[in-house]
Amino acid sequence: MGYEAMLKHVLAGLVIFAATTGCTRKTPVAAPSESSDDSHRAQVAMTGDILIGEYGSMTGGEATFGLSTHEGVMMAIDETNEAGGVKGRRLKVIALDNQGKPDEAAAVVTRLITENKVVAVLGEVASGRTLAAAPIAQQHKIPMISPSSTNPQVTEVGDYIFRVCFIDPFQGTAMAKFAHEKLSAKKVAILRDVKSDYSVGLATFFAKTFRQMGGEIVIDQSYQSGEKDFKAQLTQIRSKKPDAIFIPGYYTEVGLIAQQAKQLGIKAPLLGGDGWDSEKLYQIGKDAINGQYFSSHYTTESTDSVVQDFIKNYKAKYGKVPDGLAALGYDAAKVLVSAMERAAELTPKNIRDEIARTKDFAGVTGRITIDGKRNAVKPAVVVKVDGTVNRYVTTITP
Amino acid sequence: MEDFIQHLINGVSLGSIYALIALGYTMVYGILQLINFAHSEVYMLGAFAAYYTAIGLGRALGADLEPGIVFFGIVLIVAMAACGVAGLTIERFAYRPLRQAPKLNTLITAIGVSLFLQYTGQVIFGADPKSFPTVLEDRSLVSSGGIDLRLFDVTILLTGVAFMSGLHYLIHRTKTGKAMRAVSTNRQVASLMGINTDKIISMTFLIGSSLAGVGSVLVGMKYPQIDPLMGLFFGLKAFVAAVLGGIGNLAGAVLGGIIMGLSEEMVVAYLSSTYRDALAFGLLIVILVFRPAGLLGKWQTEKV
Amino acid sequence: MTDAAPSPQTRFRRSFLAPTATFAVLLALGGILDRTANGYTQLIFLFMFVNMILALSLNLVNGFTGQFSLGHAGFMAVGAYVSGYLSVLTMGVGARLMFLPQPFEFLNFPIFAVAGGLAAAAAGYLVGLPSLRLRGDYLAIVTLGFGEIIRVVLLNTKAVGGARGMPGVPAPGELVVGDYVFSPFFMNYLWAAFWLTTTFFVLWRLVRSTHGRGFQSVREDEIAAEAMGVNTTKMKVQAFVISSFFAGLAGAVFASATKYLNPSTFQFTKSVDAIIMVVLGGMGSLTGSVIAAIIVTMLPEFVLRPLQEYTGVDLRMVIYSLLLIIFMISRPQGIFGKAEVTDLFKRLTKARGKDGRTSA
Predict the structure, then answer these.
(1) Which positions in chain C touch A110 (Cβ < 8 Å)?
(2) How many Å is the Cα radius of gyration of chain C?
(3) Which of B182, C124, C162, C308 is a plausible cystine mate for C240, CB 3.0–4.6 Å?
(4) Phi-psi region of A156 (alpha: psi -120 to 50; beta: other; left: phi over 0)
(5) Number of folded domains in chain A?
(6) How many domains does chain C have?
(7) ipTM for the assembly
(8) Do A268 and A188 fall within a single domain?
């Protein structure tokens, strides 16, 4: 029985050890909530390169979105470094992949903050992944700017979470107004991507506004991103004879949808949001996409020098036309850099305060002002696809 | 009524794509009892081989290159060859060392190969979707009264049926086919009978994979957008179709594919587009509960 | 060490000794992590526990009973969403319902985790039913389809946020006992460790019991088992129900680890991950599953992630899949085959017990 007695002793020792390591003695001075608050406040380096974290879907099913955003971010950072960095310090981006998984987004943002000790975080495209990661940035009091998460809840996570894109209610409403007023549409069909929160959000707000204005949503169909065949839904839509079809998806599917709609003889104009903005849209959709409308940040015809320089430099750097996500990535990084330049000292708190003070910032995607809810306020333009050119139709202000 | 006919056309057309890819799954399964998860990635490689060939030819020949049957033929042969080579390579290096191992190990290896090709594809080809060049013009065969039947729809269906019959002939009427069936029934005994089992298995992979090559070009023409993860969508559905029809059964693969396509289509038309996949899978489960070996599969009672 | 058969009391004490000791070791590790590791390492450890529980649960169906489930992510999703939704209802921001009063609120978590597990078990029963008739790949397809159905339903359920996901899932907060404070991480970790220990030892005992031999007899030879009086259909359904209960627990632990749920987490690839862990560790080796879960969780994060940071090229999945292929070819039976780590110890010390409790 000596064996068992020994085990017992070891066990008792372990239990005591576990109990003592698992807890800390309460300090009488500080209230527990405050102490935990302080312990979570991340430490950042004040000399050497300025570390900025970026997280995105750089591999996996949504890699094309993450990589575009990353290219935009890197262009902004490289430009800043060529111009001498911020306060004489160079910027260094640590970009981590989350494979398009929310749990991995949470893990990599925790890594960026607690291991890499970045001063600010950029990302993500999808609201689902930003929502998974934002509470971590908020908890550690590290500012996070999302380039393109449009769900209203994202910035409601806390006062350290910002975005530079439109929110779903604005863009959905804008297109509903456009359909009603400019196209005089009475009956509209919706084809939404149920797998994408962005698409669902836009569709919901579009439907709400359009009904309020007296219009009718004749049919509301869904697909899941990744699918290739949409003829079933489009045949259903065709039977309702709508005046226009709202398809708030991404260019990865909309090109095919437009082609199949044309094959089925659907003549009604197709409407979309900024997820359409990519040269791939025309490459895949070809002439089926001509004459369709979507809300976006700028037109390729814009005479604004910021826009023209961006397009020119991007083409020179990456050999392709920037898409909407690259432009938003670029602006997110630029807004951050500008806030860093204004901050007296590069602490996360100062940077946060300066991001919040962003006003009339001349971004590629418009003049950005950050409002009290940490959302970007900026006008949207509606463009009409004409080959590789997006022609200006109208501007919609918030 | 015209909507119903259109849905019927859409469903059969989608189903014939599933069927075409399902044939490759079922072919390999029939001989090796292996779910070749990497089949859908072989199909992806074929699409990219076709894409780069078409782009390359376009650059080399410039404006002289008209979409047409010659162009299509060249691209098709390249895709089939690329897929064949890919299939053989995968078989040689990933599956052959595992001949004696349990089925599930080979399955995991297949998943590994599939992941490897997907992510390597993203690194090499880039993750962004590419527009598949027009190698052959699609056109309407019937276009009246809201009914649209297109050339590619018919081509894909006929190709599927033709391959099914061709494979059936190969397996049941030729000497190679006899050897294949022998390998399928009992590999040890087959090798004792003087059949070079490795050669037969390689041949099976060669044929199955070149089928994926044909599929990749046809699907690339119908849905002109390709990306390194494109195999996932059609691959999974085609795999399900193959099982639904009774895996290992060629006619079953085609039937299963068309039923999958039609059920998805009809679910959207008459039930709900939101629950498209859920209802399609639900139907599948119901069918399998009543036909536990698939529609055309044989239910083998185990002998003691 | 005695040669005589142990008395019932000793056996009873022994059967509690190992779980308690394991739990204590895990807690000690948690204490060390709490003090020394950063938030990232802590989170990865929680994910590792989730993967361990998931792999263990799947091993019962795939490894011990010889059935083939491709939809384990679905059961995990049911557990995660049920426990997550219950905690949002009772402890989330602006919650109006109350389950347990304030001082005992931390006990909500284990209770909701069990609720999640039970819901998953109910789902497992549904999926287990067709397995009465289906074999091998056909069963695999049914489970795959079922997993997809769960995901599509979650995607379209507004109450849990659909594609946006469910943010703000409450996690255990800090616990104050007298003068001592247990940090939120430690409390979270405590429950994760508790469920891991429970899962492991329940399954360990189960597969070694007479009843558990029944599962293995189904795997080895269904007809022979039937002839020996084993009700194989009942065995299969039971395996599914028990396995999905623990998969649901894994989901519940996951929910409080990430504090956020989204249907896209529970895709087909998640089920594949679980299968990879089971096969990697060895079908029918519980300790193997645990070790495989460690490798599958740690390798991409602690080895391949720094490599990505250093080289700037994202080859994590390329390397991971390549290693998987190479491993499968060089060691098809998995790390341990059907053996357990404890068998290795026994072999090393050559002190094999004579009570006949060597594993099959």
Answers:
(1) 38-40, 43
(2) 21
(3) C124
(4) alpha
(5) 3
(6) 1
(7) 0.89
(8) yes
